Amino acid sequence: MISHASQNSKEEPDGTRSADDYIAPAPRVSVQAFCETERTATAARAAGEDRRLAKAHLSVQMGGMAAAIETYHTVPTPNVIILETEGNGDILANLDELATVCDAGTRVVVIGHVNDSVPYRELVRRGVNDYVVGPVETLDVVRSICSLFSASEAVTAGRIIAVVGAKGGVGASTVAHNVAWAIARDLALDSVVIDLDLAFGTAGLNYNQDPLQGIANAVFSADRLDTAVIDRLLAKRTDRLSLLAAPASLERVYDFGTEAFDSIFDTLRMTTPCIVLDVPHQWSGWTRRALIGADDILVVAEPDLANLRNTKNMLNLLKAQRPNDRMPLYCLNQVGMPRRPEIAASGFVKTVETQPIASIPFDSRMFGMAANNGQMIAEISANHRLAKMFLQIARRLTGRSDVKKPQRSLLSPIINRLRAKQGVA
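Above: the chain's sequence. Below: its structure in token form.
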């Protein structure tokens, strides 16, 4: 595969990135980069801090190919080698010499320059897995390393979407469940909802499910997890939507370590295109890790002062911790509640410095009916404005653009009748 740094990002007009710009996290691998320029070395070091390389161990050295050849005469090679060349020497000869000291199975990424005249097929013949045209940025290095594993091993790399409330009781779970429904039904993506509020989770109630097993069974037996075990724990809501429900029980205390849910997320990524995390409103090591490690984040807030403060704090932290990711998003919920003073959306924009992706109106009748029936809004009324709003949020979070329906021709009824007659004849 050839990657051109100047063509790696696909920006939409509103500043978001499209779905095909998604980068799956790399597995637990060792990576060593040998750079010739300080700019590339800086980008590589920054890539090592990216969340998608959190499991990888990346080290950076100067000296380019010559340094790599000298190093591997005495030490074993890592899983991935990144080599920068400025075209000053014979690239092919250097690669041939590197092959004599390189262990089998090592993957090689070459960062070259526009004036390189070596044919790509000659690089492939010598075992180069990816060629990137410099100068490179941090995201180019991340993408190149991650693509070596997500593409070459044909592993489904599921996208994780985390939904969390800026404050307790703002309806974040309701938003998460309705958005997941839209992703599964309208966008036709196989999806799993994980209810991470083990003590008070509502996903089972909202989806009218009462499974005997769920997320608790998975997290307390994380060392024995595989795709078969996860499949047995899932409660199927529709053909495309499944649920890892919370026990909603107070019989035990749910204190988790920072990495408690990592194996669950990693296992589901291998089989499920979209995982929606219903994250409880609390601040602990594992909730922070779940949010930072997600591919896309939606913060749900009500239009009041506490929500405004919390939304700003959460978005600022998430943006700082995820400098190479899509921006975390937020929406306003229960807008227009009677007799309640509210902060207008413009007030949020002024403080948070970004627009909410939706302002969901307060509708006690529709949401109450859905909650009592264990249904989603779209099940009650597929054409309701709330259902359409959840679909738009789903599209924004998944990077899916609107599907334009073909315009109905005025001649369609006549054409259909003629086709029907021809079929009878």
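The CA atoms of residues 40 and 135 lie 7 Å apart.
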